[in-house]
């Protein structure tokens, strides 16, 4: 029987209940104040401070000095190891005993040389359970070690989370003692909390909320905090409410434990290893106590780290993976950026990830998992499908600043028409807490009501790790099937997606990229990382090709598989979604640049070894072409054999030739005109360069077509104020466009550097500000259809954005941008909010603006940010954010872009091939005197690009070759090779042979059919 409330007053009843469990008010007499019973001090605490992250074995042998709780230590990023001795009082028999440890760093408890519990106040974990119910035979005297990192869950930002780290922060332990933990009080508190939240979340419009209100009020009446015998009556009342069931039609929430751990962000890579250890050991503890608990865990790299740093923990993880509770998800090496990695890099993310998961756990992932990346390439559906994945989970598009994405559950159709079933958890979070608010949001926000009756809810502290807590599990368990709330079941991605697929008839389809209308500065921030990424992608491409050719040419050659895997894994790691976007602290940038350096030096060595195996010894100079078409280009000769240092060479596709200088049909002419402007011409292009380096004219000689827009100049540097609303390194806002200022101050006017013949070039220097300058060499080569701008910037700005503009004589409503294995169009107008929200977009090696039979392409060798509005093509060059890296992008930068007017379409004009040429320079190698030009592969159809040649992962004297259709057309192509290929098979992107599909091989080559933008992978058996 309920007590009749005195007045009809919802507010007093609700607040009465809230105060009854408050940890701030009335704890002297409320239930919350009874959570802990007696306490007992620790026997001893001693400490040892280490500037480095060391192993337990090393730490445990150090000299520990006495430590008093409350004492400060540091500095940031150091580690304080504590040695703790404790004795549990005899008379605590039958009690649940915790070590309570509150500190402002992230801690790990070690016992008997093994990690046993992660402790982080910010992650609501301050207890290590010594005993669930103390028995006499349990050890009462215990020695523990606590490893405390001097950083918080979110690093050590000075003043705000994303500010650059405060390197002198001090840390302390605020509380360390033994306590009796009262499990019955905890359970009752959870009953109260959930009922109070139901009252609040369902609001005054739902009668169910009032039923919760009266229930919780009556529980306060029944419960005497001082008398534990009163708890069961209150608990029973709560149970009665929670066990009132839903109808069959209720929405089902698939709850999955999760712990988003950024592989590096506001902390360095090395700390992430410990974050994984702390988070996952906690997960394992929860699994031991909660057999229904399911935890989803992505990023093969993090598994690899834990495997080598915490082998004991790793074997427990393997056990729970087998049981189906600890579920590896995602299929990739890391949760990479979804825009910037090349097509091949994206494939390798999956190849390394899926192979790792298969090898370690006997199973590939069936879903791609990328909750926190800043947009998703339109080529991802095809790549996923090629890697055995048909499902995709993310939620980041809920961060859109302008337009609300219209679906939560839908089919996502990629560039080539591949489809994947996609789910955005409607709660718009990957770090829920199992609260009523999370469940109600999941149903309310669902934009596919009536179409999809199942949703995911990912719970557990995230970003900096932490993961789920027992409290979250208790909350979810209470409301599995409670009338008025969605049904909740502990679930797995497989279970969720199979439910969604089984009932997918009403689902909508979204075609093309998933563009994030936020964080668009990440295409440009930390230019050095972007440049090195492109350079290393190019280098590994070349190393794999040269090594594959060497493997075929020389029986004794050992393909450097292990080394290449190591280098790829470093490259893939740096493609993590806070590293390549440049949204990380300076320490991470240093690590990343060091990894790139390793890739470059080791890669260069591998290249030399492969060339040597190819017979490249001797005193002559040869040229190596890693691209699948013949190239006829001017190159710089470094051995001084040629007087000018330049040579025009012709090199066959995927092959090599000696340097045999040939004469151009039309040499480059350079003329300084009386007004100081410089005229350059090479038979294809004719340009007039002003004294300030801008282009007064750029003309395609045949059919005499001017490129530069009337009354404008090309190659105009412009600078903008770049102050976002909050996310400094991430965001460039729409309003920055209103602050455009041309860079006009000439420090050194245009002067001739190379006077013509094979090459003409001029140079000039502009002042950007009193701290920054730009020096540029404008280069025109004989036979070359584009002009290169080799640029050097001294950059010392604060919150400025440097770009370069080319206003062109082209009118088109759409511009084209290269993406992974293809290209797509985006509007050049701002008609609707979906159009203007894309005021800053990403592209890879080129972008093009074309009308019928004429267009202009803007190529680059390491940039990713573009904007093409109306007829102005703009390339984003440098930013100067101050958080989370206060020195981001300060210093010297070198990069190259190029402008290429053309007739016909960009496809017919070979814009794609030219952009490849700009990015994959012909490489000089040693060779014997007078070798014969040699080609290993060629493709009969220009639109089909042979992108990758490598040894098959499973070896066995087989090569893998990957080709894609780059024009957006259905074509047949013949792949010809001079290598001794015996047989060829189709395979997927994971190199799994398709035994139903032998490749059609004749004496002429292998015939292949392509649909638009299709990627085809072959296994060539040698
Ligand atoms: Zn993240």
Unreliable parts: none
Q: How many E strands?
A: 56
Proportion of residues in helical segments: 10-25%
Q: What's the pLDDT, averaged over the residues?
A: 96
Q: Give the distinct bound molecules.
A: zinc ion
- Distance from N terminus to C terminus (CA atoms, Å) equals 84 Å
Measured on Cα atoms, how large is the radius of gyration?
Answer: 32 Å
Q: Describe the global form.
A: elongated
The number of helices is 18
How much of the sequence lies in strands comes to 25-35%
- Main beta sheet: 14 strands, antiparallel
Strand order of the largest sheet: 30-29-28-27-26-33-34-35-36-45-42-41-38-39
Name the quaternary structure.
single chain
Based on secondary structure, the structural category is alpha+beta
What does this structure look like?
The chain is an alpha+beta fold and 1022 residues long. It has a 14-stranded antiparallel beta sheet with strand order 30-29-28-27-26-33-34-35-36-45-42-41-38-39. Strands 3-2-5-10-7-8 form a 6-stranded antiparallel beta sheet. The longest helix has 28 residues. The termini are far apart. Bound molecules: zinc ion (ZN). Zinc ion binds next to loops.
Question: Main attributes?
Answer:
1022 residues; alpha+beta; 14-stranded antiparallel β-sheet; six-stranded antiparallel β-sheet; 18 helices; 32% strand; elongated; binds zinc ion
């Amino acid at each position: 029987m309920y007590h009749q409330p005195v007045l009809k007053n919802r507010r007093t009843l609700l607040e009465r209940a809230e105060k009854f469990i408050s940890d701030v008010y009335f704890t002297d007499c409320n239930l919350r104040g009874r959570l802990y019973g007696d306490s007992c001090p620790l026997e001893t605490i001693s400490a040892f401070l280490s500037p480095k992250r060391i192993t337990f074995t090393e730490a445990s042998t150090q000299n520990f000095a006495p430590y008093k709780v409350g004492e400060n230590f540091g500095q940031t990023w150091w580690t304080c190891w504590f040695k703790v001795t404790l004795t549990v009082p005899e008379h605590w028999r039958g009690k649940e005993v915790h070590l309570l440890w509150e500190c402002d760093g992230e801690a790990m408890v070690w016992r008997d040389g093994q990690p046993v519990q992660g402790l982080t106040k910010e992650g609501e974990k301050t207890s290590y359970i010594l005993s669930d119910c103390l028995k006499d035979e349990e050890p009462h005297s215990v020695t523990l070690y606590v490893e405390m990192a001097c950083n918080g869950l979110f690093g050590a930002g000075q003043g705000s989370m994303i500010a650059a780290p405060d390197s002198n922060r001090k840390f302390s332990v605020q509380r360390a003692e033994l306590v009796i933990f009262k499990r019955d009080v905890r359970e009752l508190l959870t009953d109260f909390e959930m009922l109070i939240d139901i009252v609040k979340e369902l609001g005054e419009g739902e009668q169910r909320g009032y039923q919760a209100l009266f229930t919780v009020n009556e529980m306060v009446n029944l419960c005497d905090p001082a008398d534990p015998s009163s708890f069961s009556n209150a608990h029973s009342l709560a149970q009665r409410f929670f066990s009132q069931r839903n109808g069959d039609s209720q929405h089902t929430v698939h709850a999955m434990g999760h712990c988003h751990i950024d592989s590096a962000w506001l902390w360095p890579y090395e700390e992430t290893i410990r974050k994984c250890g702390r988070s996952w050991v906690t997960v394992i503890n929860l699994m031991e106590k909660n057999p229904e608990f399911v935890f989803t865990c992505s990023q093969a790299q993090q598994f690899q780290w834990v495997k080598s740093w915490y082998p004991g923990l790793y074997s427990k993880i393997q056990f729970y993976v087998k049981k189906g509770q600890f579920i590896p998800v995602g299929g990739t090496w890391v949760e990479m950026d979804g825009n910037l990695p090349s097509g091949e890099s994206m494939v390798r993310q999956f190849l390394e990830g899926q192979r790792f998961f298969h090898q370690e756990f006997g199973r590939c992932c069936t879903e791609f998992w990328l909750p926190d990346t800043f947009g998703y390439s339109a080529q991802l559906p095809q790549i996923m499908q090629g890697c055995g994945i048909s499902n995709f989970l993310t939620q980041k598009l809920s961060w859109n600043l302008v337009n609300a994405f219209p679906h939560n559950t839908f089919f996502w159709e990629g560039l080539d028409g591949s489809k994947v079933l996609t789910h955005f958890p409607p709660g718009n979070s990957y770090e829920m807490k199992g609260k009523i608010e999370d469940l109600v949001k999941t149903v309310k926000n669902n934009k596919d009501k009536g179409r999809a009756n199942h949703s995911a809810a990912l719970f557990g502290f995230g970003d900096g790790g932490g993961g789920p807590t027992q409290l979250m599990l208790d909350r979810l368990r209470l409301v599995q099937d409670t009338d008025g709330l969605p049904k909740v079941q502990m679930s797995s991605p497989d279970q969720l997606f199979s439910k969604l697929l089984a009932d997918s008839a009403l689902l909508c389809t979204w075609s093309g990229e998933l563009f994030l209308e936020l964080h668009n500065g990440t295409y440009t921030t930390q230019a050095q990382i972007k440049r090195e990424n492109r350079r290393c992608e190019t280098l590994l491409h070349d190393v794999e090709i040269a090594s594959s050719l060497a493997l075929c040419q020389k029986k004794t050659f050992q393909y450097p598989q292990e080394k290449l895997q190591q280098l790829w894994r470093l490259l893939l790691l740096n493609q993590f979604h806070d590293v390549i976007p440049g949204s990380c602290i300076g320490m991470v940038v240093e690590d990343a640049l060091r990894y790139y350096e390793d890739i470059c030096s080791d890669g260069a060595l591998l290249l030399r070894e492969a060339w040597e195996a190819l017979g490249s010894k001797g005193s002559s100079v040869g040229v190596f072409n890693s691209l699948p078409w013949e190239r006829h280009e001017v190159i710089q000769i470094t051995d001084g054999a040629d007087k000018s240092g330049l040579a025009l060479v012709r090199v066959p596709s995927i092959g090599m030739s000696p340097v045999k200088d040939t004469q151009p049909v039309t040499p480059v002419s350079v003329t300084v005109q009386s007004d100081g402007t410089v005229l350059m011409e090479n038979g294809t292009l004719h340009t007039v360069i002003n004294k300030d380096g801008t282009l007064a004219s750029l003309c395609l000689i045949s059919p005499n077509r001017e490129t530069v827009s009337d009354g404008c100049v090309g190659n105009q540097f412009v600078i903008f104020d770049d102050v976002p609303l909050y996310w400094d390194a991430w965001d460039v806002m729409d309003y920055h466009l209103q602050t455009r200022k041309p860079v006009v101050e000439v420090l050194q006017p245009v002067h001739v550097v190379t006077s013509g013949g094979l090459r003409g070039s001029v140079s000039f220097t502009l002042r950007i500000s009193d701290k920054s300058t730009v020096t540029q060499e404008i280069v025109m080569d004989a036979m070359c259809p584009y002009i290169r701008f080799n640029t050097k910037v001294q950059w010392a700005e604060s919150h400025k954005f440097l770009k370069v503009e080319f206003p062109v004589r082209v009118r088109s409503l759409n511009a084209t941008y290269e993406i992974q294995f293809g290209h797509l169009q985006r509007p050049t107008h701002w008609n609707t909010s979906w159009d203007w929200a894309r005021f800053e977009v990403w592209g890879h090696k080129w972008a093009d603006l074309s009308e019928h039979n004429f267009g202009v392409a803007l190529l680059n060798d390491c940039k990713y940010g573009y904007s093409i509005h109306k007829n102005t093509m703009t390339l984003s060059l440098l930013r100067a954010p101050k958080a989370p890296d206060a020195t981001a992008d300060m210093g010297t930068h070198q990069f190259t872009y190029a402008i290429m007017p053309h007739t016909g379409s960009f496809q017919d004009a070979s814009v794609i091939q030219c952009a490849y040429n700009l990015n994959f320079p012909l490489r000089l190698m040693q060779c014997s005197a007078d070798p014969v030009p040699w080609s290993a592969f060629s493709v009969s159809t220009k639109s089909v690009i042979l992108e990758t040649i490598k040894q098959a992962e499973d070896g066995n004297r087989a090569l893998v070759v990957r080709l894609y259709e780059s024009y957006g057309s259905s074509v047949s192509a013949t792949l010809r090779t001079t290598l001794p290929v015996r047989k060829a098979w189709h395979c997927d992107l994971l190199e799994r042979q398709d035994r139903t599909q032998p490749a059609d091989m004749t004496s002429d080559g292998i015939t292949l059919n392509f649909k638009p933008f299709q990627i085809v992978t072959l296994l060539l058996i040698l």
